[in-house]
Amino acid sequence: MDRFEMISSKFIDYIREAANEIHNHEFEKSYKTIINAININPNAPEPHNLLGIWYEFKNNNDLARKHYRAAYALDPTYKPASENLERVCTFFEAKRKQVNFGEEILEEQEKAKEQKDKLKLIEVEIESGYCACGKQIKDLGISADIIIGYILRGNNTIVPNGKTEIREGDKLMIFTNMVSHKTVISGLIGDK
């Protein structure tokens, strides 16, 4: 695990921990946890959203609105902040919504990351008429998350570079993530 992943993982742990602590009315503990998350990533909307919730539970709607606005300013697409801001600014109790901790978004982000991180080895045999046939690897326009590990050409194994030409009958051994593997195949095959 590299440093970025460790920081990212610790940040998510703090966000979840703070949300649980607020749920359990452990307000002093949750405040410290939120501050730890802000120290890791001050530009993330999640800790500011949680601070807004924290202040709202402490009956300080002015500071709650301030932190919901900060979260919204950091990421206008972060729905929990806009929903909480709308709720705290609503005067009619009947129209008030529940507090949105942003837990669903965290779960979606983790699932997407897990899928993206799973590597898949696929084998593509190049046939006549495939758009990759006769092209150098550098001209295929493949993204950085796709690696042609090696090519089986007859009885030879080739470790390719950008200038390696793809030929009919080549078997490309490609490492890609779970999300991109269908795009890889369609990009190599193209229109026959």
UniProtKB/TrEMBL annotation:
<dbReference type="GO" id="GO:0006813">
    <property type="term" value="P:potassium ion transport"/>
</dbReference>
<dbReference type="Pfam" id="PF02080">
    <property type="entry name" value="TrkA_C"/>
</dbReference>
<protein>
    <submittedName>
        <fullName>TrkA-C domain-containing protein</fullName>
    </submittedName>
</protein>
<dbReference type="GO" id="GO:0008324">
    <property type="term" value="F:monoatomic cation transmembrane transporter activity"/>
</dbReference>
<dbReference type="InterPro" id="IPR011990">
    <property type="entry name" value="TPR-like_helical_dom_sf"/>
</dbReference>
<dbReference type="InterPro" id="IPR036721">
    <property type="entry name" value="RCK_C_sf"/>
</dbReference>
<feature type="domain" description="RCK C-terminal">
    <location>
        <begin position="109"/>
        <end position="190"/>
    </location>
</feature>
<dbReference type="InterPro" id="IPR006037">
    <property type="entry name" value="RCK_C"/>
</dbReference>
